[in-house]
Predict the 3D structure of the following.
Amino acid sequence: MTREAFIKNSLALGIGLPFLSTLFTSCEGETLAVPEFQTDFSGKVIIVGAGAAGMAAAYLLQRYGIDFQIIEASSDFGGRVKRADDFADFPIDLGAEWIHASPSVLAEIIDNPDVSASIDFVTYNPQTFRISDDGTLTQQNFASNFYSEIKLKDTTWYGFFEQYIVPSFRDKLILNTPIMSIDYTAEKVQLTAQNGAVFEADKVLLTAPIKVLQANDIEFVPSLPTEKLATINSIFMGDGLKAFIEFKERFLS
């Protein structure tokens, strides 16, 4: 798979927007301006954040043999990709769960002929949509002809990353290490963690959530340019809610 195809597939899945924003400079129709990777790069890269974007970046850098570390603030990888194993007799996606593309995109992301991936899917194709307009709920059927999504059946998004993506770079993953400041005034970029640990790299790939940046949880030295701060603060990221209900009796077959 080409680099451009990888980026298009990641964009279709919605798993790598912060990662992708560092890789392409423009998008006009179906054309992405994708710069060539510097495959003879001999320096070190630090990825901040082990969510979906950070994991996708780490997997790609690993494939190109580039030296890197991936640093995550929490105690586990995944970010908003989370899994519950103790609610039902099958794993449940607590975060992202849908695939907005053909299931074959997963094989293209893995991009390894030596890996045999057997993943089952469920197609979600609702026959009726309900739309709220000024407090009035109306029923619509026109969209059912062209709207459908795919859901992982016996695994989750977290399980996909856990099985096929993370093993290639697990030894380079550092958990429980929130980055508090990024100083890029010198030739080497210096990152300071909450626990006092200091990391150095030639390049830093920041895939932290947009809300972390909006809250100024990471200090940049020097401060980010005004236009970048304005762009960051102009992005709206809404809250999500999921509810799981357990019934005493089975009423659907």
Residues 10-35 have pLDDT under 50 and may be disordered. The two ends are 41 Å apart (CA to CA). Residues 51 and 78 are 4 Å apart (CA to CA). Residues 3-90+154-234 form a domain with the FAD/NAD(P)-binding domain fold (CATH 3.50.50.60).
